[in-house]
Amino acid sequence: MHDDRDDNNAVSRSVPDGTSAARLAERGLRYALVDTASDAVLDAWLQADRRGFHAPAPPADSMPRRRDAIRGLRLIGVWDDAAPAGARPDVPIATTVSWPNELTVPGGALPMYAISSVTVAPTHSGRGIARAMVEGELRAASSAGFAIAGLTVSESTLYGRYGFGPAAMAAEITIETGRARWTGPEGPGTVVFVDINEAPALFGAVHERARLLSPGDVSTRGDFWASLTGADEPDAESTRARRFVVYREPDGEPTGAAMYHLTKHPDVFSKHTLEVGCLTAASDAAAGALWRYLLSVPLVQTVKAPLRPVDDPVRWLIGDFRAAAVTVVDHHWLRILDVPRALESRTYAVPGRLELVVRDALGFAAGRFSMIVDDAGRAVVARLADAPERDAGADASPGEHMELDAQALASLYLGGVSADVLARAGRLGPRSRGAVETVDRMFRTARAPWLSTWY
Ligand SMILES: CC(=O)SCCNC(=O)CCNC(=O)[C@H](O)C(C)(C)COP(=O)(O)OP(=O)(O)OC[C@H]1O[C@@H](n2cnc3c(N)ncnc32)[C@H](O)[C@@H]1OP(=O)(O)O
């Protein structure tokens, strides 16, 4: 298994991008790595990050924990040293954070450069600061040897311009419990309540197995499960409302975990809404048992589960298909930085040959590539000379031709969208039509890609 810690050290120490530093310096702004040895500097960065997402200032006694959670990461700040009197010059006007994690892909996993906390203070928006930071992080990822970068987004309009594509969708599932009637099998194990103190370790252990079953899912950072469950802030009102259940196999092994809270109906005590904060499962039996449990909680009229896989089997586990309403949203956005390495890191459903011509305004993925997949589903991808036309008569013909941009390539990568859909939407080059069926046979996966968390 890949060890994230080695990459983490390399990433957090690597210098900030010179091109972006120069671009921002022209505007009188200082772009730099955050000095993670200094508590005061970390606190100022955290303040900027929370302000960027309109979050309340954190309680003072939570600061040591918050600092520890980010100290090992690559933190970038942008400072306006010419801020007028009264403004706090130590608080950055823009932030990003990055760290290495592992992305599950069909047939394996590969290191990924995760980017988050991209914020620019409203006082400084619209001046190209976010662009400089995101491009800087992509250059940093590429020079550190990452083949792929990823992020989850506050708005889906932000990252396509940098070559990110929506690669794994999420389903928001709303189920009317009164109509649902369980028809699925009964698992052999048991659903039990667990205390919040036990929740982070149990949820983390289950997810660590579950994430490897879903292309598109990622490894999580050390503090992630304490933060998601609220175990790091047990007295907060939102935490106290949460309930935690675990599915244990007959031998006691936990293979599923769910967290939820109830939103009370203002008038009718039997019409509450149960909101699922997390459902992670390493087996179909565990997922089914947890769904069955959630749909049977008394006094609940509606169960709402955001962030589910688009092919969640739950609609086939209940008696009334229309008891469940499903809305699909973009969720995991990926950016391919090294085409041969990214494509060679996953397996493919059938053998085949392709010639890919990738356009990329930022350059990372641009070029012509031959892709040959063998009978075992393993790919060999090679950069070809940049001649615009291949020699049609040559036996070494790289295969059917597909022309696309970096964003479309990222969306195709995990099989989350078909080339047919992209072609119908005019997202592939005009000469790509002949390759569509081949690409779809090769890239398709048994399961829809899914990212089970935010990061
Ligand atoms: C991975 C994550 O962290 S997702 C979280 C993103 N951050 C947030 O949602 C926090 C609140 N928002 C913000 O902090 C800022 O408004 C940001 C980060 C979204 C944008 O910062 P800015 O410095 O104003 O962006 P910048 O001026 O660099 O604009 C870059 C490009 O994005 C576009 N853009 C900026 N804001 C938006 C928006 N809300 N919707 C669509 N496009 C936008 C600009 O038009 C510009 O396009 P172009 O370069 O192709 O011409």
UniProtKB/TrEMBL annotation:
Active site, UniProt feature: 159, 455
Domain of life: Bacteria
Binding site for acetyl-CoA: 118-120, 126-131, 154-155
Record-level Gene Ontology MF annotations: aminoglycoside N-acetyltransferase activity
Annotated keywords: Acyltransferase, Transferase
PROSITE patterns: GNAT
N-acetyltransferase domain span: 32-185
Gene Ontology BP term (one): aminoglycoside antibiotic catabolic process
Family: Belongs to the acetyltransferase Eis family.
UniProt subunit comment: Homohexamer; trimer of dimers.
HAMAP family hit by this protein: Eis
Protein name: GNAT family N-acetyltransferase
Organism: Pseudoclavibacter endophyticus
